[in-house]
Amino acid sequence: MRRRRILVIAGAVVVVVALVAGLVQALAPHDDRTAANGSGSPKPTASATASTTPSGSPNASTPPSPPGFDKTQFSIDDPASIWVVSDKLRPLNPVDYAPADLTAMPIPTTWGAVPYLRKPAADALTAMTQQYTAETGLNIQIQSDYRSYQSQVKVYNGWVASKGQAAADLTSARPGFSEHQTGLAVDLVGNPAKCGLNACFGDTPQGIWLATNAYKWGFILRYPKDLTPVTGFEYEPWHFRYVGVELATEMHDTGVQTLEQFFGLPAAPDYAP
Ligand SMILES: [Zn+2]
């Protein structure tokens, strides 16, 4: 009899304790939000993680997931930067900029002289054209390489004389606005040449291969089809711009075709009035 009473009392105590505990929990401020923000949420410390990880396991040496692509890594304003964005709204500054590391390339040209680009672009283009020949047995040559401010004056005036200014502005940049003046842009064609400086180059074996593979060497097809309202230039499947493997690969992987779109710059369909 006494034993049963003790059991009943003990049971009642348990129930009361449970109720009080539940009440305390219900009245306590919910801190999910602060926990979600990181303050006060218990996180495994580095030492705790390490102590449960067998030494030498892959986890111990795996670096943290890579951070997002750093779009501020290089200047897009400095004409000497491999990321410089030159378009009809962004003249080179200074307008008569000339690169300091022009390098000769062992690549044939349509005009027979030795071609030049800036050192990183020259090295990449040489490797890319050699790989193309090794892979296909076909050849690529250069139709236009680095152009100085003065030679761009001649080229642009030649286009104006033959096609008029409006048509010239769709094909050739005005002096100070040309990517060729940076020493990072090149016009390519097959060897023997076919469809040079013509949209049909995009359908040649060289044009198809370059459009698919140039990013692996750090080049982008700078004036893609149907993006004249963004770049200000007609489709130029022959014009490749060196931006480095990292940026070219990022643009390829994210499907962003122009530097203007990638860097969130205004479209540059025409020169400022
Ligand atoms: Zn070009």
UniProtKB/TrEMBL annotation:
Residues 32-72 are annotated as: Disordered. One of its GO terms (molecular function) is carboxypeptidase activity. Pfam families: VanY. One of its GO terms (biological process) is proteolysis. Residues 39-60 have a biased composition (Low complexity). Coiled coil: none annotated. Keywords: Carboxypeptidase, Hydrolase, Protease. Residues 116-244 form the D-alanyl-D-alanine carboxypeptidase-like core domain. The keyword Phosphoprotein does not apply. This is D-alanyl-D-alanine carboxypeptidase family protein. It comes from Schumannella soli. The lineage of its organism: Bacteria, Bacillati, Actinomycetota, Actinomycetes, Micrococcales.
